Amino acid sequence: MGEEPSIGTSIRRLRTARGVSLRALAAGLGVSPATLSAVENGHTGVSAVRVAAIADLLGVPVARVFDPDGRSGPGPGVLAGLGGAVPPDRAGDHGDLGDWRRYGPLELDPALAAALATFVEVGYHGSTIRTIAAHAGLSVSGLYHYYESKYDMLVALLDRTMVELDARMRAARAQGAGPLDRVAALVECLALFHSHRRATSFLGASEMRSLRPEDYVRVAAVRRAQQQAVDEEVAAAVAAGLLAVADPGTAARAVVTLCTAIPQWYRPGGPTAPEELAEQYVGFALALLGRPPSTGLDPSRM
């Protein structure tokens, strides 16, 4: 029996098979090529959320990241590379993302973390490579070790934001027992993301205008797909008589806009925790969508 591949080896095999360069995948993940190379060579671990992001960027199910050669399932060598982030009995299902309600610190390399802070503080056009390098505690040449331009950093941040939100929304939608449950889960997911990930969400709302046409089209397509998920579940709930709103499409867009506006006013550490805020927003959304008073959600979810 041959030796089981590590998670890094599996990622490299799948990336190569899909014809994606190391630099392109790293940019999509919001990390430097050196960081991704370290993952692929087994020098550093990889989180469950990042595994889900890799799968999304490569256009494959998460299980394929663990099983690039079509074996029956991930072996112990692959699972070991996750540092316990994914339980073996869940490695092949949608649980690879982990709990979509759970948030840890944002994982960014020093250059990208500094770029995010600088872009949020003074805007993309007000930022320079020199100010980003100073924020990161790096020389300008040291910053270029990570990214070739501030534009590359902007694209990496926006790609990473869209990938993470998309993975969380897919997981939230999959857990719903019916259309009304799925509407509530998607609203909760959006509110949690835009409060926990306030900085990246704010950047996504304010700096898409700075993208070149080819990048704008790609990022906008992901945003449209996320809106479509809410549109579909609202329409299904209306058709089932669970919601009563005259214009489901417009109402669904109003609900999503309500959530995406959170970064404009929310401040971490304030009187309202993200979880409490998300619960309130679910109530706001269902009221806007015309939920009849007698209609309840799946009690196992609430």
Which characteristics define this entry?
single chain; 302 residues; mainly alpha; 434 Repressor (Amino-terminal Domain); Arc Repressor Mutant, subunit A; Tetracycline Repressor, domain 2; 15 helices; 60% helix
How much helix is in the residues? Answer: 55-70%
Low-confidence stretches: 71-96
Overall mean confidence score, pLDDT = 82
Q: End-to-end span in angstroms?
A: 47 Å
Instruction: Determine the CATH superfamily of the largest domain.
Output: Tetracycline Repressor, domain 2
Backbone structural class:
mainly alpha
Quickly give the CATH architecture of the largest domain.
Orthogonal Bundle
Number of domains: 3
Q: What name is given to the CATH topology of the largest domain?
A: Tetracycline Repressor, domain 2
Biggest pleated-sheet summary: none
| Top CATH class of the largest domain | Mainly Alpha
Order of helices and strands: HHHHHHHHHHHHHHH
What coarse outline follows from CA principal-axis ratios? globular
Kindly provide the radius of gyration, computed on alpha-carbon positions and rounded to a whole number of angstroms: 20 Å
Contiguous helical run count: 15
Overall number of strands: 0
Provide a compact summary of the structure:
The chain has helices at 7-17, 22-29, 33-40, 48-58, 62-66, 76-80, 110-122, 129-136, 140-144, 150-175, 179-196, 198-206, 213-239, 248-260, 274-288.
